[in-house]
Description:
Blueprint: H1 2-22, E1 25-26, E2 29-30, H2 31-53, E3 59-67, H3 69-72, E4 78-80, E5 83-84, H4 85-103, E6 115-120, E7 125-132, H5 135-174, H6 184-195, H7 218-250, H8 258-271, H9 273-303, E8 315-318, H10 331-356, H11 358-367, H12 369-383, H13 393-412, H14 420-447, H15 449-454, H16 461-476, H17 478-492, H18 505-529, H19 532-546, H20 561-569, H21 571-583, H22 601-626, H23 629-632
Antiparallel strand pairs: 1-2, 3-7, 3-8, 4-5, 6-7
Amino acid sequence: MARTVEQGAGRLARLRASFGLLGAPLLGLKLYHWLWLLLAVTGALAVAAPRVLSQPVTYVARAETRFDLRRYGPIYELVAPGVSGLDIAINDATEALRQDRLARADVRFGRPDFRVVFTPREPGVVEARGIGPTAAEAQALANAGAEALARHVRAAGGREILRNMLGWELWLALEPEGRPAPTPFDTLLRDILRVNAFPMSRDLEPVSTPRVIADLPREELSDLARALEARYDLWRFAINTRNATLDALCGTTGARGTAAREQALETCARADAVAHAELIERNREIARLRAIQAALDYVLVTYAARFDPDEPSAAHRVAATLPAAPEPRYVTQLLALAAFFGLVIGVAGVAMDRSAGIAARVSEILGYRELIRNLVLRDLRARYKGSALGYLWTQLAPLGMMLVYVLVFGLLLPGSIAMFPIFLIVALLPWNFTAEAVTGGARSVIDNAALIKKVYFPREVLPLTAVFSSMVNYLLSLPVMLLLMIAVQLLTIGRLNFAWTFAYLPVLLIIQVIMLAGMALFLGAVAVFFRDVVHLVGILVSIWFFLTPVIYPLGVFGDGLAARLVRWLNPMASLIEFYREILYGNPVPVGQIPTPGLPALDSVLRVSITAGLFLVIGMWVFQRAARNFGEAL
């Protein structure tokens, strides 16, 4: 080790000679200052360019849903804290559009370049913006969105009509002698009651006022039909989800033929309690679907209560026109903004160097890069010394942890996230990197007290060694991640679903290393004087794990203030989401296929700036504290 330090001192002398050339003055700044400014601007453009240049060409078409406030005014009332009936109708319409696209084997819906956005305007008017890659698709999406919302607005009114009709059937059933169903539709309503095919937000109550379908006005007949249609769609979606879960449990994804598949499910259910429960619930939902379908067919055939979305009525749509030109992408402006941010970061770096001599310190550390390499190798050898499997533990350890989480959250607490093992491991590996680097960095100076007392070298080498050692361990665990992704994708969808966004991985890794280096420097310095920090860090890392979206999507916090606070106060939350976005995609329900993409430019820049601040603060604290390490150790 002493020889390595001597070699580092020799390299340092040569590096200082080279640094003298870089330190030559040029137009009021040193040459390396100009190189830093160039690097900062170029780096910002390198981060921004992939997302800016890959922006898809999109068209936007605008349709409207209009409804009569005298008839549907209560839809604006709150049905839950912060949630109105209109919010529920918009969510139901969006989900209906998604399921319709899935039924056509089109998985694009929900992507930034293929979606529908609902925006309430004046009372009784909601705009449906269709965003698509072509003008025709944007127009079709806007029209489909406006029609779907009109249907669900009518369904909201139809639910109250159906509530009264079902309440009347309850009243008849409670009479001492009972009464026969006077019409075929009453028989269908009693079937709906018997299998609980139309659950309500409030319990049904007997209604003594008769509600006969033959006496309903045409608008109310339309509302009743739309309510039955909406409930039919909900049961169909639920059955599809149950079938996807059963296929995953029983391995019947590729089964051909309904009879053969059902027989395979029955056999699986006899051996698997979870599959047995799922199959029972699915069959109940099928019975409910059939009860709703029978009532809907009766209303459509007997009373011709079909829906023409463009016919002026109590709830209808105003169709969208064909957009003439795509939306502007502002490529030049966004690249200029990225270059400006890079210039700001560069100027801030120059100012800090001129006040604290950071560049000189960094050059000194670089002179001891051989020492850092040897210390990293020493840590890796010590980690697996005496073990029979050695390097394979870098593969087996994260795989074992992932299997535990999959067992707990995927089987004992079943969720609805597609390809859950991939969703988990792409976040678990970078989190392990963070946890190891932070805990190792906190102990780095204390554990090497003897080395510090023997020879001189930049003390920053020790926390940086902890970070680089954890980084190498992370890189060595990537093969098991790739193998798992291949296996899960082939078993789930029968093909590979990789994307070019994997190339963004080095960018995220650099940001994470910068942030962890700052944390390790700060904690390593503080722990020398306050030894309790070492024990406290272990506790805080455990808490930090559950505040970071590793085993759950960040979307559980919603899109409001809570989600923004998590992103701003916990940079690892954003980093984990970045890793997940480029390797897995946005979390989607079982039965759908996640699509990888690039993280938002503004989010990457924000996290990059945060990482830089961590590094600057860590270096400043470490330099101030390092003067007294000898006394404290």
